Amino acid sequence: MILTINELTPAQFLRDYWQKKPLVIRQGFNNFQDFLSPDEMAGLASEAMVESRRVYKEHGQWQAEFGPFDSYEHLGEKNWTFIVQALNNWLPQVEELITCFDFIPRWRLDDVMASYATPGGSVGPHIDLYDVFICQGSGSRRWRVGDIGEHHEFAAHPALLHVEEFDAMIDVELRTGDILYLPPGFPHEGVSVSESMSFSVGYRTASARDTHSALADYLIDNNLAKQQISDPGRPLSTTPGQIDAQDFARIKQQLLATFDDEMLADFAGRYLTQSKCELDLPQESLDFQVSDVSEMIKQQPLIRLGGLRCLYLELTYTEGVFYINGEQQHLPLAMSDAIPLLCDSPSLEAVELAPWLSQPLFIEQLTAWINLGYWYFEE
């Protein structure tokens, strides 16, 4: 699968459009094929561990329901849509789509959302707080996009935040292979012209509030930041109800002293590799032996589990530190060069791993990750 962006290079796209303005990309993909059929998507949406929802109107009122679902017949043949989140967690072939956008780092990736809609199907006009590439699969949808600005939002349903009517600066019908890029904050509405599928690659960051909340949990869980303010030689106070400038500086310094680079790097690695949706992990160890892995890797590619977050920090990976699924991982310093390969490449061949395959500690660690389901051998 090859992505083309209206004759723009990825660098030009990032310079001129990323988080700045929407872009309609005609035939971003040639010969685009749906990753699954509507029936297969419905099968996924019947599973409790898969996050799914469907949106429709009933008696003129918006309705939203959350899966699992076992029937759709009562919805009729028009004016409804259903959605599966984190499709990349369940279908290995979706990795091919994500790879096309790897000019954006994976720590920003949210998930790939699949949407099936009957004619007239929509989730209503709304505003997203993340960047998204809406890749049109089979069928077609009409998209209206307004300009960023002050827009009134309201709850059309407890699970649907809509935006009031907006003037469209983009009004376009997407057909198979077309892409609509939307930065955060631009109101938009998609309505299916025919029975259609789309696949949305979303990128987001957490709010500062959510990050601070997670950081507080990290400090508590790791029994950190216990230092209290010390102020020997304090001058006499004549205003006991005041927090003076010197005391405010002490309070501020206490907070700032908590955030050293090593601690923040560890927090970021753990926090950013946590999956928001369930992963297709085994219930028990797969019980591969080191000898099994040593032989199999010579014959088959090693595939990273879909949706698994595997990241390293430029600041610390040369010390053998990286992160998988919310946990810190270690390799000996002599093997630290393997870390970028493990994290950057969704598929690994023996020739790429050759410098480390002769080292028992590396094979043992690789076997442990395979037994956890983090990597698997392609059939």
Question: Main traits of this protein?
Answer:
379 residues, alpha+beta, Jelly Rolls, Malonyl-Coenzyme A Acyl Carrier Protein, domain 2, 2 domains, eight-stranded antiparallel β-sheet, three-stranded antiparallel β-sheet, globular
Describe the structure.
The strands form five sheets. Strands 1-11-6-13-5-4-2-3 form an eight-stranded antiparallel β-sheet, covered by helices on one side. It has a three-stranded antiparallel β-sheet with strand order 10-7-12, with no helix packed on it. It has a three-stranded antiparallel β-sheet with strand order 18-14-19. The chain is globular. It has 379 residues and is α+β, with helices and mostly antiparallel strands. The mean pLDDT is 94. The protein has two domains: 194 residues, Jelly Rolls; 88 residues, 3-Layer(aba) Sandwich (Malonyl-Coenzyme A Acyl Carrier Protein, domain 2), CATH 3.40.366.30. 25% of the residues lie in helices and 25% in strands. Strand 2 and strand 3 form a beta hairpin.
